[in-house]
């Protein structure tokens, strides 16, 4: 049975991002996966503070807050799902705080401190067209690769206002991705 960690970063409960996350979660649970979910806009904590303590200790991050709980859940999961709207060329700060703390998930020689073999899924929704921000998934794939996550896939919902998610094929793509990674 696969363990899945779903991280959402939109405060809009019934918005496109959370609709994609809900669809992934229900599909995975139906297939028998164990799902843990954090809505990061409600998690207390900070991004990386560049204290560099993670470079001088075996501990991956010395900050003890809600983001540390999410990092610990990431360590225990098989599949990381990050669902995010695209705001101002990137994902919201709610998710960026978690991503910044990946600094501590590699040691001083950039050897990953998390178990190998993890997969990652990006579920992105944006108001702009498909040509805009198309580099975003590749940037996150590169960072995840530094952590030893080599299987990174994504679904991008573009032109969100003109292309309502319920009237598109996006949720079918999300279901297919969820089924394919289990």
Structural class by sheet pairing and helices? alpha/beta
Nearest-integer average pLDDT: 95
Major beta sheet summary: 5 strands, parallel
Order of helices and strands: EHEHEHEHEH
Measured as a percent range, the helix fraction is 25-40%
Report on this structure.
The structure is a single chain. This protein is of the alpha/beta class and 182 residues long. The chain has one domain: Flavodoxin domain (Rossmann fold). The chain has helices at 16-30, 66-76, 93-100, 136-146, 170-180; strands spanning 3-8, 34-39, 79-85, 119-125, 151-157. The mean pLDDT is 95.
SSE order and pairing:
Layout: E1 3-8, H1 16-30, E2 34-39, H2 66-76, E3 79-85, H3 93-100, E4 119-125, H4 136-146, E5 151-157, H5 170-180
Parallel strand pairs: 1-2, 1-3, 3-4, 4-5
Helix pairs in contact: 1-5
Summarize this entry quickly.
31% of the residues lie in helices and 18% in strands.
Q: Which keywords apply here?
A:
5-stranded parallel sheet, alpha/beta, globular, Rossmann fold, 18% strand
């Amino acid at each position: 049975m696969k363990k899945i960690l779903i991280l959402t970063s939109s405060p809009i409960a019934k918005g496109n991002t959370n609709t994609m996350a809900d669809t992934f979660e229900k599909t995975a649970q139906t297939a028998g996966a164990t799902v843990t979910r954090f809505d990061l806009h409600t998690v207390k904590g900070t991004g990386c503070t560049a204290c560099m303590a993670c470079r001088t200790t075996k501990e991956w991050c010395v900050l003890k807050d809600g983001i540390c709980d999410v990092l610990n859940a990431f360590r225990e999961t098989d599949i990381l799902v990050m669902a995010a709207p695209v705001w101002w060329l990137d994902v919201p700060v709610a998710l960026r705080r978690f991503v910044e703390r990946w600094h501590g998930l590699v040691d001083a020689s950039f050897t990953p401190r998390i178990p190998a073999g993890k997969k990652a899924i990006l579920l992105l929704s944006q108001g702009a067209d498909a040509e805009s921000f198309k580099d975003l998934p590749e940037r996150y794939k590169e960072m995840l690769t530094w952590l030893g996550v080599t299987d990174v896939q994504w679904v991008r919902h573009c032109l969100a206002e003109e292309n309502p998610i319920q009237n598109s094929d996006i949720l079918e793509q999300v279901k297919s991705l969820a089924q394919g990674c289990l």
